[in-house]
Design goal:
Mean pLDDT of chain A: 90
Strand content of chain B: 15-25%
Low-confidence stretches of chain A: 1-20
Order of helices and strands of chain B: HEEHEEEEEHHHHEHEEHEEHEE
Number of helices of chain A: 14
Helix content of chain B: 40-55%
Largest sheet of chain A: 13 strands, mixed
Largest interface: A-B, 19 and 23 residues
CATH architecture of the largest domain in chain B: 2-Layer Sandwich
Number of strands of chain B: 14
Oligomer: heterodimer
Distance between the termini of chain A: 64 Å
Mean pLDDT of chain B: 88
Bound molecules: adenosine-5'-diphosphate, magnesium ion
CATH topology of the largest domain in chain B: Beta-Lactamase
CATH class of the largest domain in chain A: Alpha Beta
Number of domains of chain A: 2
Number of strands of chain A: 13
Distance between the termini of chain B: 30 Å
CATH architecture of the largest domain in chain A: 3-Layer(aba) Sandwich
CATH class of the largest domain in chain B: Alpha Beta
Largest sheet of chain B: 5 strands, antiparallel
CATH superfamily of the largest domain in chain A: Periplasmic binding protein-like II
Strand order of the largest sheet of chain B: 4-3-7-6-5
CATH topology of the largest domain in chain A: D-Maltodextrin-Binding Protein, domain 2
Radius of gyration of chain B: 52 Å
Shape of chain A: globular
Structural class of chain A: alpha/beta
């Protein structure tokens, strides 16, 4: 069986789909066409192409005849596309569990169950609509230019103390998510705020040190690796791990007080057209833990209860209506106001 | 007797029917209670959630503000994966939540949640609304908090409950059915026991039934016992009557006969003597006939309820030969005994068998010429055969089949008088014992051979 893989690099602002007014933003898009082509599977995903590429190829190898149209978007943009704009995709993959939960709760997702999805632990799926396939910690990354291994802070209190001790050293050299722009950043920040009061102290210290705000984990990793930043807080660990394969100059720190672990989930929107293909992909992703080759190629840790229990600091984020709380208009407004007050002090 | 229905079957079906009704009732009640409990649980959690939201409402300069508590929604996810919707309305405008979530038109009273079930976003939801007055008492804003949840979890519980209730109901029914089968059987045990004890009785055992009788059967058993008492009384009356009648008829005849013989001896004129002899013969015949009629009545009566005793047929035959010896002697007839070499045991009514043999031997003597020989034989090769063979006139030309009918006499009788009951008695006795009689010519020359053939054992 032979198939071509034609890669298109399209940086698009709009006009992606034959719809007159597309407002959501696509960062990247690639089409893996199959020959002969039986169907096209349109995926919208927050996973960077270079991370997800091996999975898509392996899937296509296993399911010949399915062309994949893979679009990368930020978590907020993905939500906008499906929730507000009714964009047509067969599969939506995102690590913003709260937004995915809202999609399922508000009726934008169709149910599916199969032998493959049944192998997932109960905590890794919700309503037979959200299917988690990776468990990714939010980590601290530190630049080798600033830290020797023994000076790296191991918990939030130590980090706060360190930042307070030497403001001149870290001013303008720390980074974190701009939670107003990044859905993933918002999820981690809100979970942080639930877990520990240290979060707000940390934000305040970061504000005083004129922290740089980022949209995406990739940029933060780049800047830490290059030494532009001394450290970045709440970086997606899986990206950092896969980046480490090619880039030197930084260390990954799993803080010992607690580590938020996010589940990257796939869902089939109600208006999906290639439901069959989407189901095949969900089956494929549900048993990702059996594909050692793919997990090591992508750096994405597959769902595994054992490895979660190994580190007692891991706090996997639980599915459920609780995730809707911070999406409440008023709650969000209040949270962002507090966040801004901490980070932008006069 | 044809059976008309069965108590056991009716009892069983009625008990099983009751069990079925109880099982269904059990199922309905169990399901109802459990589902109401499940619904109650959902209502409780919904109220707790709505109350938690209402409790975190605050009044601020710009109006009412809400810091949605994390637990308020997360608690709804603890027992199922149902969808959750909420809406907070302050003074008719939606503060936060799902603006299109229907809210009850009547404002709930403080502390009294209002529950409702309706369709929302394509699914049935259970909703609860609570209200709070927020702000200064003079200018309070009325805030209504509604929390709704779909009912898939509830339906799953309901399915589980239904399955359990069905299982329990069916199990209960099967158990109850098995028990009713057992109950029906054991309830009828006393009847079986009584039937058994009555069946096992001998034919003449008319003692009252005295086995331990359950209260319900006491009237039946009492009726049966009183019936048997009456039967016993009437039987003994009949027996007494037969004995009495035989006595009353024979005694005067014997007297008359004695007087006639005395007169005969005193008379000298031959024609007078002949007349008296005729008279004596007639008296003898009358006496014998009366005897036979009574014998016949007795046979008919006893054959219905055969007494079963262990008998030795050799002995009975010998006894009859002894009894009729004198009569044979009058005609110089020799009765030759050809018995079986060991006792011939047979279970039967001795009195009846005696009567039968007596009539057969009596016939042989009656129809034999003077100075002849009669062979009385008991033989057990094959069946038990008791035969009497004479050298008399035999049955030449007589239809032997009808000789056993009552009062039937053969054409060969000539001047010999008789009642025609002798062979009838012999035949009835043989048949009452499961055997028959055989009427044949004497196989060893002239004469007749009449046998009673009985089954062995
Ligand atoms: N031993 C016998 N020899 C010849 N005929 C006999 C003998 N026994 C019976 N019978 C015939 O059978 C008939 C019926 O016999 P039974 O019933 O004893 O009546 P009966 O009172 O006439 O002897 C007799 O009338 C006679 O014709
Ligand atoms: Mg006779």
């Amino acid at each position: 069986m032979r198939f071509h893989c034609i890669t298109h690099w399209l940086i698009l602002a709009s006009a992606l789909i034959a719809s007159p007014a597309i407002a959501f933003e696509i960062e990247n898009r690639r089409i893996y066409s199959a020959d002969p082509e039986r169907s096209v599977l349109r995926i919208i995903s927050t996973a960077d192409l270079n991370v997800f590429d091996p999975i898509l190829r392996a899937f296509q190898e296993q399911n010949p005849g399915i062309s994949i149209d893979y679009s990368v978007a930020g978590t907020t943009e993905l939500m906008k596309a499906i929730y507000s704009e009714g964009a047509i995709f067969d599969l939506a993959i995102s690590s913003a569990m709260d937004l995915q939960t809202k999609l399922a709760n508000d009726g934008f997702v169709q149910s599916y169950s199969s032998a493959a999805t049944a192998t997932l632990p109960t905590w890794a799926s919700w309503r037979n609509q959200l299917f988690a396939f990776t468990q990714e910690p939010a980590v601290l990354i530190v630049s080798d230019a600033f830290f020797t291994p023994d000076t790296i802070p191991q918990n939030r209190d130590a980090l706060i103390a360190l930042l307070r001790e030497s403001p001149e050293r870290f001013a303008g050299r720390i980074g974190t998510y701009d939670v107003r722009r990044s859905g993933l950043g918002y999820l981690v920040a809100t979970q942080d705020s639930r877990n520990s009061e240290a979060f707000w102290r940390l934000m305040e210290v970061m504000g005083r040190l004129d922290a740089k705000l980022y949209c995406c984990s990739g940029d933060m990793i780049d800047d830490v690796a290059s030494g532009k930043l001394a450290l970045a807080y709440n970086v997606l660990g899986s990206y950092a791990v896969s980046q480490q394969a090619t880039t030197n100059g930084f260390h990954i720190v799993e803080l010992t007080d607690f580590v938020n672990v996010m589940l990257r989930t796939a869902l089939i929107p109600v208006n999906a057209q290639n439901v069959e293909g989407a189901r095949d992909m969900i089956d494929f992703l549900s048993v990702l833990d059996t594909r050692q080759d793919l997990t090591s190629a992508t750096g994405l840790p597959a769902i595994n209860t054992m490895s979660l229990q190994e580190n007692t600091a891991f706090r996997p984020i639980r599915f459920g209506p609780g995730l809707l709380v911070f999406l409440d208009q008023m709650k969000r407004r209040n949270f962002l106001r507090n966040w801004e007050n901490s980070l932008f002090q006069e | 007797m044809k059976a008309h229905g069965s108590i056991r079957r009716r009892l069983f079906f009625q008990l099983a029917g009751v069990a079925a009704v109880l099982s269904v009732a059990f199922f309905v009640v169990l399901r109802g209670v459990a589902e109401r409990a499940a619904e109650g649980t959902q209502d409780d959690i919904l109220s707790a959630s709505a109350t938690a939201i209402a409790d975190s409402l605050r009044s601020e300069d710009q109006g009412v503000t809400l810091e949605l508590p994390y637990a308020a929604l997360s608690m709804l996810g603890t027992i199922n994966e149902d969808r959750v919707f909420y809406r907070v309305v302050a003074a008719q405008t939606t503060l936060t939540g799902y603006a299109d979530l229907p809210q009850s038109t009547t404002t709930p009273n403080l502390g009294e949640p209002i529950f409702a079930t309706f369709d929302y976003r394509g699914e049935k939801v259970r909703a609860v609304s609570v209200s709070r007055a927020i702000g200064p008492v003079s200018d309070a804003t009325n805030v209504v908090v509604t929390v709704a949840q779909t009912r898939l979890g509830l339906e799953a519980i309901s399915r589980r409950i239904t399955a359990t209730a069905t299982g329990v109901g069916v199990g209960f029914f099967l158990l109850a059915t098995a028990l009713s089968l057992w109950a029906a059987r054991s309830a009828l045990k006393p009847i079986e026991r009584m039937t058994d004890s009555v069946t096992r009785r001998g034919p003449s055992d008319l003692r009252p039934v005295e086995s331990n009788t359950p209260a319900e059967l006491v009237p039946l058993v009492a009726a049966l016992n009183s019936f048997m008492a009456r039967l016993r009384a009437s039987l003994s009356q009949t027996e007494d009557f037969i004995a009495e009648a035989a006595h009353r008829v024979r005694t005067p005849l014997a007297t008359v006969r004695t007087q006639a013989e005395i007169t005969h001896r005193k008379l000298n004129k031959p024609e007078h003597k002949r007349a008296i002899r005729e008279m004596i013969r007639a008296i003898d015949e009358s006496s014998r006939s009366a005897g036979q009629m009574l014998d016949h009545a007795m046979v008919t009566f006893r054959a219905d309820s055969l007494t079963v005793d262990a008998l030795d047929l050799n002995a009975i035959m010998a006894d009859i030969c002894d009894r009729l010896g004198p009569t044979a002697d009058l005609k110089d007839i020799v009765i030759q005994r050809d018995f079986w070499n060991s006792p011939v045991t047979f279970k039967g009514d001795g009195i009846l068998i005696q009567a039968a043999l007596q009539n057969i031997l009596d016939n042989a003597i009656k129809y034999s010429p003077e100075d002849s020989t009669i062979i009385a034989r008991v033989d057990v090769s094959g069946a038990i055969t008791m035969s009497v063979t004479d050298q008399g006139r035999g049955f030449g030309g007589v239809d032997t089949n009808r000789l056993t009918t009552r009062y039937a006499r053969g054409a060969n009788v000539d001047e010999i008088v008789g009642s025609g009951l002798g062979l009838t008695i012999a035949d009835e006795v043989a048949r009452a014992h499961g055997g028959h009689i055989e009427i044949t010519p004497n196989p060893e020359g002239v004469g007749a051979c009449v046998s009673i053939v009985l089954p062995i054992g």
